[in-house]
Prior knowledge:
This protein is an alpha/beta fold. It is 39% helix and 19% strand. The strands form three sheets. An eight-stranded parallel sheet has the order 1-5-6-7-10-11-12-13, with helices on both faces. A three-stranded antiparallel sheet has the order 2-3-4, with no helix packed on it. Helix 3 links the parallel strand 6 (113-117) and strand 7 (142-146). The chain is globular.
Amino acid sequence: MKIDVHTHFVPEVLPAMADRLGDHRWPATKCQCGKSHHKQIMISGKNFRTITDQCWSPQRRIEDMDHEDVTVQVLSPMPELLSYWFKAEDTLEFSRSINAELSAFIQNDPARFLGLGMVPLQDPELAAKELKRLKNEFGLKGVEVGTNINGKSIGDPFFDPFFAEAEAEGMTIFVHALHPIGKERIIGPSALSALIGFPTENALAASSLITGGVLEKFPNLKIYISHGGGTFSTLLPRLTFGWERMEEIRKVIPHPPSYYAKKIYYDTLVYDINTLHYLIGQFGSSRLMIGSDYPFLIREKDPGYWIDDLNISQEEKEMILYKNAANIFKIL
């Protein structure tokens, strides 16, 4: 069995929001001439990304899943849809439309698909209230959030009302890299932002969950981070070293950083067997879950193909392949 916890969804037609504040900055779908199974995501009059029916067709997904022996996919919105940079009330309306489309998609085969919705996290109180709707009306298992919301790290106490409600409702939180810091310092094509910027962004987010006290205040929170947590695993020893020697850090972090780091789950999307061994050494097999980034260009095809190359027990392999995900999403 194999559960892929990092896949993305885009509806075939996005809700029309051009008459709202932000007008052309709202994402919109546009048909690609001569290609019935392709769409363009238009933002500010430019093609942000060309997508295929893998994003919105359950049948196409199941074909790919069967080909790659994936039992269950966890779907979350394409991160650029999160729309934290608009009025919260407008983002709420946009989110409900996306969540409804995602819910309808999952109903095509609830045994194969689980969903994570989106909420207007620029207003944490409003986002917190919406979690009940995600769970009870849309039947979603949790919510995807960005690593930062308009430049504010996800671990900032500003978001405590949202985390409190997520913990109370037992909703899983997927932290995905978004609008990485320092893009202007990346030399080369814009595509490098996802390759160089995302790992740094994930590390900042994971660190903020510790230094901002989120994991201390909400010990039962279910949360996982994209791209193996980025560079967080290599930053963690330095953070621990500082914690051991600096009283001001211990005042805000009662336990060693590694204690909190092992409360987080991480996907396996690191493209390298040696890095996976390192993550296992840092966090343990009980904290890793298969993630592919399906169906986008940088996805790992045949996710988990490397499992038998890991020098771990059969039980640990099963944890990574499906048991950890089954536990966090309360299935099986």
